[in-house]
């Protein structure tokens, strides 16, 4: 994720970004959202040079350093879309539905499907004779 955002693994902890090498983004949408968030974070970042006399590539300009302020509160909050909830009227059919019984019957049907197919094949063989 940091690599896609243009941040090396060694640079990430020095600028305040956590990196967990064990995790992988399996979802392309979340990966792109995280990369975009890291890029905006990096664009807003003011990096002070380690030595004041020698500025390296990636360090901020002296003008940016002079106007830099400490951020209070959440820096870039993660804004997720809240899923919409659809309200429906509870019908008599919904009230009378027995979920546990339905699950038990479906599990039983799945368990006995082989024996039932074998029995149907034997009955078909008997019918042909």
UniProtKB/TrEMBL annotation:
Among the GO molecular function terms of this UniProt record, one is: structural constituent of ribosome
One Pfam family here: Ribosomal_L13e
**InterPro entries found in the cross-reference section:** Ribosomal_eL13 (IPR001380)
Asked if the Swiss-Prot or TrEMBL record annotates the protein with the keyword Ribosomal protein, the reply is yes
**Biological process, per Gene Ontology:** translation
* Family membership: Belongs to the eukaryotic ribosomal protein eL13 family.
Q: What is this protein called?
A: 60S ribosomal protein L13-1 isoform X2
Species source reads Theobroma cacao (Cacao)
